[in-house]
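Schema walk-through. Below, the input block comes first and the output block second. Nothing else is stored per chain. Lengths vary across the set, and this one has 400 residues.
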Amino acid sequence: RPKIEGRDVFEVASEIISTVSDPQAMIGPETGFFDDQVSRDHTAKEEEKRRIIHFQLLHNSLKQKPKNEHLLWLLELKIVFSRQLPQMPVDYITRIVFDTKHHSLALIKEGRVIGGICFRAFPQQMFAEIVFCAVASNEHLKGYGTHMMNNLKDYCIRHTLHHLLTYADSTAIGYFKKQGFSKDIKLPRPSFVGFIKNYEGAALMECELNPKIPYTELSDIIKKQKAVVHQLIEKKQSEIRKVHPGLSCFNEGVKRIKLEDIPGILETGWKPTGEDPRTPYQIEIENDFERLTAALRQVLSEVKEHPSAWPFLEPVQEAQAPRYFSIVKFPMDFRTVTERFRSGYYVSIRLFIADVRRIFDNCKTYNERGTEFYKYACQMEKVFMTRMKLSKLWYDPTAV
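--- output ---
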């Protein structure tokens, strides 16, 4: 059933987009401190448009002599970092800021540096490490920190750096969480171990960047999307907001009717319980064993090739996992799944999903939350679900 009866949903969306002109109509999820109708980085973006602030990439290069102005800005940035990060030794900050392997994105307001991010890029590993990040204390609550980080994200994407890593102490974790960082590290450890310094007493955090997102424009995009969704909902509600006559069948001797027979119930999007969750394509492919096997094998092959899949490739050995078989009653691994293909076991999508999910469920049962293997299981579970959805094979077997 089309979401909007009688009309193409993209046609309706395009029509609505053309009517969204009120800048205060809807907002994104991140609001400012003083005004609920303004995104966090609104003030900073407006000041940048009026050229009150601007960003400058600074680098103390040995190959090409830096401009004197840039060296002065690096010195000012070092002073900002020293004041805002008093726990860091001044000589260490100075060495990193002027190091030729590090770059700094400086936020400059009316000719003076008021903040910045010092980072080092690792192009072959496709990530960058943020070493220092600060804004002058008298310039807080203006959205500079968010806008500054978004500019760095756009810079990283332009240079094929798809991960940002940083060590954050207890006072900085909140800021980095707001910027999309998480303690759940998705970048494989071999890609960064040995490349970045481990800071004692700080938590390693990561932000995985999406190359399709223009981060400096993200708040405006979300704002427009929310306006579109809001009006789509209003349009749909206006079509189904009607009063149906009362049920007269009971006056005619009927004692019981199906819920879906009540006028207006199906229009709300409600579905009868026990309805087959499989799509017509899934039902069709399950009737063709060879096609089903080929499709599921392809998914398995893609999942096994993921860098974080290595703990699940072979059966668990109790020598490496004490008391494993007393905790996990039904072991499963990718080798066993592959062997089951050879025996023709997977006659349905449901059986395949159940076995692969058991691999990750077993891992999370045996390992404590927050451990490296627990994180691998959560990550691979998402990878598996994504591959199944891309192949149009995913559904919830528990609903059958």
